[in-house]
């Protein structure tokens, strides 16, 4: 049985090409910047939460990362990435799962989330995400989380979002991770609309 949320996202990726969604970016510049800035290495493991059809995985494979996982609620999003990557997709672990209903089977050195946490508008959804984060992030691991900023859009893909300043996002993720850096970035949609994001870098402290 599928949930409304899963149906919504499956339909988005079934109806639209990856380049036609508002969050499309030709290159994952801020993510790569964050990884470089905090010394993440290709020998480490990384999971892209709600990775959708993002090309982050392509960029990391090209840099020699070989322990990559992409998780998304929408199977068609992952199929689009697999088709784009071709044979190289066999070097990536693909997981169709709802992050609010997923128990990580292992720990990752890097947890990456661009534009997923902000869809969790209910406290119990956020609590489930934080539980998964704490189970899935290695000691001293890095969590890169990007949400819409307070001046960003109120909705995305027809869904309400929660918008964050860095300190409010840090409070939402709890004391198991420590905020090490934050910055704003304006994403331009494929049709030229500006969307301001809050990017945060957290370190798992225990
Ligand atoms: C705005 S898109 C961002 C996609 C990708 N991170 C990027 O930067 O291109 C949000 C993504 O989160 C996925 N998603 C939404 N809710 C989710 C959930 N509860 N669990 C897992 N993935 C989810 C959607 O299917 C979609 O791919």
Task: Estimate the mean pLDDT confidence.
Answer: 97
**Could you say which overall geometry the principal axes of the C-alpha atoms support?**
globular
Query: Residue ranges: pLDDT <50 for 5 or more in a row?
Result: none
Main pleated-sheet profile: 7 strands, mixed
- Helical segment tally? 6
Structural category is: alpha/beta
- What is the CATH class name? Alpha Beta
How do the strands and helices of this protein lay out in sequence?
Elements: H1 4-15, H2 29-37, E1 46-49, H3 56-62, E2 68-72, H4 75-85, E3 92-96, E4 108-114, H5 123-136, E5 137-148, E6 155-156, E7 159-160, H6 166-173, E8 177-188, E9 194-204
Parallel strand pairs: 1-2, 1-4, 2-3, 4-5
Antiparallel strand pairs: 5-9, 6-7, 8-9
The structure holds S-adenosylmethionine.
Brief write-up:
By secondary structure, the chain is of the alpha/beta class. The chain has helices spanning 4-15, 29-37, 56-62, 75-85, 123-136, 166-173, and strands at residues 46-49, 68-72, 92-96, 108-114, 137-148, 155-156, 159-160, 177-188, 194-204.
Question: What do these coordinates show?
Answer:
This protein is α/β, with parallel strands linked by helices and 206 residues long. The protein has one domain (4-19, 28-204): 3-Layer(aba) Sandwich (Rossmann fold), CATH 3.40.50. The chain has helices spanning 4-15, 29-37, 56-62, 75-85, 123-136, 166-173; strands at 46-49, 68-72, 92-96, 108-114, 137-148, 155-156, 159-160, 177-188, 194-204. Strands 3-2-1-4-5-9-8 form a seven-stranded mixed β-sheet. A hairpin with a 2-residue loop joins strand 6 (155-156) and strand 7. The longest helix has 14 residues, at 123-136. The mean pLDDT is 97. The structure holds S-adenosylmethionine (SAM).
